[in-house]
Automatic annotation (TrEMBL):
InterPro entries: QTRTD1, Queuine_tRNA-ribosyltrfase, TGT-like_sf, tRNA_ribo_trans-like
Organism, as annotated: Danaus plexippus plexippus
Protein's name according to its UniProt entry: Queuine tRNA-ribosyltransferase accessory subunit 2
Lineage top rank: taxon: Eukaryota
Keywords: Cytoplasm, Metal-binding, tRNA processing, Zinc
Function: Non-catalytic subunit of the queuine tRNA-ribosyltransferase (TGT) that catalyzes the base-exchange of a guanine (G) residue with queuine (Q) at position 34 (anticodon wobble position) in tRNAs with GU(N) anticodons (tRNA-Asp, -Asn, -His and -Tyr), resulting in the hypermodified nucleoside queuosine (7-(((4,5-cis-dihydroxy-2-cyclopenten-1-yl)amino)methyl)-7-deazaguanosine).
Location, primary (coarse class): cytoplasm
């Protein structure tokens, strides 16, 4: 796999190409882009056939091990890698450890092991076991196992421990990676953690840079534990995106995990982050929310960029979610019909919302690339940020009562730590 920066913008924003995937030799993935978040190897709410109608080009499938580890036996028996097993061989797999869609309990570490919160409970996993799984999954790229699931407000001491653990785990991954025949076509991604403790974070980056011969990209973890969704735009995160981005070699592709709103996503792009994990669009869908950004920088968007589709307001609204949207949902269905499906808990509600949200979120990246090309990225970023800032003034009740699908599947969250996304 290769990553080439094809255009550098005015700040650190850039356009890049990912190519040379052995299993999909014709795939060219332009960055910045969002991957598609998967659950059990599938795109959440969409079959492969529907997906093919939403995206005609190969996509990065983001596969957290927490929700795909159960595929091990099947993938091993078939012996053709995880994308083939999941029926999505024309796409590119990126395996990660954690699922930043969800909030998990803190702690639970043992020497040399990290906890993996699967839907069947906690599994402790070593770097060696992780690499065994990667040799079975054979993804196009995978993140090194790391201690990366924590909030930006963790103590410097916790961050320091995370760095020590992450460096040790990476060193084991590197040794195994160098010796592995199965992983010769899989790109290894180093993970930076510890941004809460500058000195330790620098150590983490230094450790990654010792292995530039093996590592193709870097991911940033350890600044979100999944609870940051819809949080207001803060400079604290932007400073981290910048500091870590500036410390990394330009030739590495950079992955930012976490459920970031459009303003935060564009701030990360401004500081040179290339690939996002796709959890944002899925989270909106599962909350019954439709994304509706205005991309036209010459026009102010005076309406909210998120529509709570369960709202009474849409009961007799026979417009599409977004006029002019080219997605399959907006071409055929009205807001009133989607509201009806949500209220009657029909599965089709999530399918239709998912089609729109994934398409529209992708459009945000397409426009970002166009603006980077034209040297106008800053104008675009300000235009989108303004729309996100407006949302703060919306009453909170709009987001209540629609968190249904994801938490149901995660027994551990309900048992061990009750999380209310709406309280953010
Ligand atoms: Zn649409």
């Amino acid at each position: 796999m290769r990553f080439i920066v094809t255009k550098a913008g005015c700040s650190s924003e850039r356009i890049g190409n990912l190519t040379g995937f052995v299993k999909c030799p014709n795939a060219v993935i332009e960055t910045p882009t969002s991957g598609l978040f998967t659950q059990g190897g599938s795109i959440v709410h969409l079959t492969a056939d529907v997906l093919a109608r939403v995206f005609t080009n190969p996509q990065i499938l983001v596969m957290p091990l927490t929700n795909s580890i159960q595929l091990e036996t099947g993938v091993k028996a078939q012996n053709e890698g995880v994308t083939k097993f999941a029926g999505l061989p024309e796409h590119v797999a990126c395996v990660t450890v954690n699922n930043f869609y969800e909030t998990v309990p803190p702690g639970h570490f043992e020497p040399g092991k990290i906890p993996l919160w699967t839907k069947h409970g906690k599994k402790m996993i070593t770097a060696d076991k992780y690499m065994d799984l990667m040799e079975i999954f054979r993804p196009d790229m995978f993140l090194a196992i790391a201690d990366g699931c924590m909030s930006v407000n963790e103590t410097p001491k916790r961050a320091s421990k995370a760095v020590e653990r992450t460096c040790k785990l990476l060193n084991t991954c590197i040794d195994r990676y160098k010796a592995s025949k199965e992983l010769k076509n899989s790109a290894l991604v180093g993970v930076v953690v510890g941004a809460q403790n500058q000195k330790k974070c620098d150590e983490c980056i230094e450790n990654i840079l010792k292995h530039v011969d093996c590592i193709s990209g870097v991911a940033l973890e350890g600044i979100t534990d999944g609870t940051d969704f819809l949080k207001e735009y803060t400079n604290q995160y932007c400073d981290i995106f910048k500091k870590v981005g500036d410390a990394l070699p330009k030739e590495f592709f950079r992955i930012l995990e976490g459920c970031w709103n459009p303003a935060m996503t564009l701030s990360a792009i401004e500081h040179g982050w290339d690939i996002f994990d796709g959890t944002y669009a899925v989270k909106l869908t599962n909350m019954g929310i439709a994304l509706k950004l205005s991309f036209d920088v010459t026009k102010e968007n005076e309406t909210p960029y998120l529509l709570d589709m369960i709202d009474e307001l849409y009961k007799e609204d026979f417009n599409p979610i977004l006029k002019g949207c080219e997605c399959l949902t907006c071409k055929k269905h009205t807001r009133a019909y989607i509201r009806h499906l949500l209220n009657t808990r029909e599965m089709l509600a999530s399918v239709l919302l998912s089609i729109h949200n994934l398409h529209h979120f992708d459009q945000m990246f397409i426009h970002a690339r166009e603006h980077i090309n034209a040297g106008t990225f800053n104008t675009y970023k300000n235009h989108i940020t303004k729309q996100c800032d407006m949302l703060k003034e919306l009453p909170k009740y709009r987001y209540k009562g629609s968190m249904n699908t994801p938490e149901k599947t995660n027994v551990h969250i309900n048992k061990k730590k009750k999380v209310d996304v709406n309280s953010n």
